Prior knowledge:
The protein is of the alpha/beta class.
Amino acid sequence: MRRTFSAIAMLLLSSAFLFGCAAQQTRMAPMTFSPATFESGKYQPRVNNALFILDSSMTMAMEGSGTNFQDAKGVIAGINRSLPPDLGFNTGLRHFGLHSKQMAAETELIYGLARYTRSGLQQGLDAVKEAGGNSPLAAALMAAGQDLSGAGGKNAIVVVSDGLQMSDAPVAAKKLVDAFGGNLCIHTIAVGGFPQGEKALQQVAAASSCGSSQTAASLADSGAMAAFVEKAFLQRKAAPVDGDDDGDGVPNSRDKCPNTPRGEFVDEDGCSLKLTLHINFDFDKAEIKPEFKADLDRAAAFIREHSQVPFILIAGHTDHTGSAEYNQKLSEARARAVRDYLIANYGIDGKRLLFRGYGKSRPVADNKTREGRYQNRRVEIVCCVLPPE
């Protein structure tokens, strides 16, 4: 009888040894996660604050392949490498478990909340080195509520866990979501491939209508990683709605003069394309004085440069001396003299130069003074107009 019992014991020990060796041989390497790439400047944060909760309990190091803890850290690192660096939102990292070497409490905020930087979040992740203790996800969720309570705005919590030994977590998640009044989305990422753990994490995510639940394995591909990161953290910036309210051909976003009158030609800033020069005349004269040649040179250069403008108005004016009828004819003569000068000396197409006389009806200075009357005896070269009626 003793001999039989000894034989059975030896058989069991041998089987256990062989099973252990087989388990060591089939132990899998940690998963790798290909980061996503988002075009700079095209996205803005969907949330104001994002808090990662990492399961660092005993089951993460002992169950399944034995790489669950590394996989959990790896998927958070992959998300971190995928986030655009210019988002300007807040991030934090909390973990739960109770390994005697690294924790004095069952859950601990190890990084943040702080303005997001890729290096800052990675440093927090690197600081979690051990896994041990129970799996108090419910306590970690409630502590996360305290982390986020003073931050304001919209929030996201991402739980990375094997989902084991946390039957009270879905209830805690529901209380947390209710406390934030719809401003909290919970996303869960399951590692280890445990059906009961994945189910528990699905229930945690279901506490928020905007949450999601997936496995770490499903995020290994960069395309899947991109889809998750965008759903949880990002939204594409809306294309600017750019009209042209004043119809000048310059979109509103670039229009520095948004109320340009219809029909006026404008520069690249949407402001009226204007050249107003005053050519003054002696009393009762229509002869152009040599001192105004530089002004006429400038007018000719402007007219040539803006060949798209079909008409330039040359407007003649007088002072108030004399009758209205006489001054009307004198103002027309002055305008015609400038027009003829531009045609003769600069080869400008006369069809583009319209001249009009306005007599003494539009003074720009005081007719009671000698200097004022001189200023009123003028021709203005005015750009840019449609043909006046």
